[in-house]
Amino acid sequence: MKTSIKITAKLLLLCLFLLFTPFVHGLKQSLEASSDWLQSLVYRQRTYTQNMHLKESLNILSYNTNITLPKEEISVETTKEHPSVVPNTAVPSTKQQKKIYIYNTHQSEAYQDGKTVLDAALILGKKLEEKGYKVVVETNDFIAYMRSQGWDYNSSYKVSYKYLNDALVNYGGFDLVIDFHRDSVPRSASVLTYNNKNYAKTMMVVGGLGKNAQSATAVSTTLTDIINTKVNGMMKSVMIREAYYNQEVHENIVLMEVGSDANTFSEVQNSIDVLAEGIDELLKGEDQ
Q1: DSSP string spanning 172-213?
Q2: With a threshold of 0.85, does the pTM exceed it?
Q3: What is the pLDDT of residues 33-52, one digit of tens each?
């Protein structure tokens, strides 16, 4: 009995000693560093499930500063209520008309001459509308919303998750959803010269952790193959990463990186022409 009391007393003294010395603080720091290191190996996107619709949470009336195109060039329908942005009525809406939603998780990603991925998304949307699709381009200001919530750049996918879900509710779903990005690689890896014309190389990226990884891979691979038959080498191989990229939200979400910061916007536009043709062929092929 006395031995047990002595052991217990010694253990208590040892715990008190460790508690009031730098040992515990050092152990905590080591565990935090280890956790940060492990998280750097596998990016696990946080999702935001709280119900917060735009009209209920924040009303941003300013025009998105990440759009650098002249306003008169924007004819595609957008999510932004703005007098210079109106639906393109050249193609009448029908019950059979397929719907496409285009957004940019990182709206401020820019090309060599200052135009952004949001500018590129608007042009792609316009090209697809001309082919008969109902296209909606997301132009609500993600950065302004992020700041209003006190979030940093690492919360970009949390912001796009919110607006993506809003769009799915407001427009009743889509046949294809595109998250339009650009890469950050040297020019040697981002430009293709084909028949004396320069194109921005493009890559489809799949979040391998999401429940829709298989369907996203199938759509991305099919689109890659279609476009490379038109401009051989414009599409890089599909990349599957240990992430989500919001692709768990909808079966037909794809993420594309069109060019890099080393590409000119004219090279991006050349690729957009081919992308629009490829997307058209992809969606028409689904009907056959």
Answers
A1: T--SEEEEEEEE---GGGTEEEETTEEEE-EEEEEETTSTTH
A2: no
A3: 344 333 333 333 333 333 33
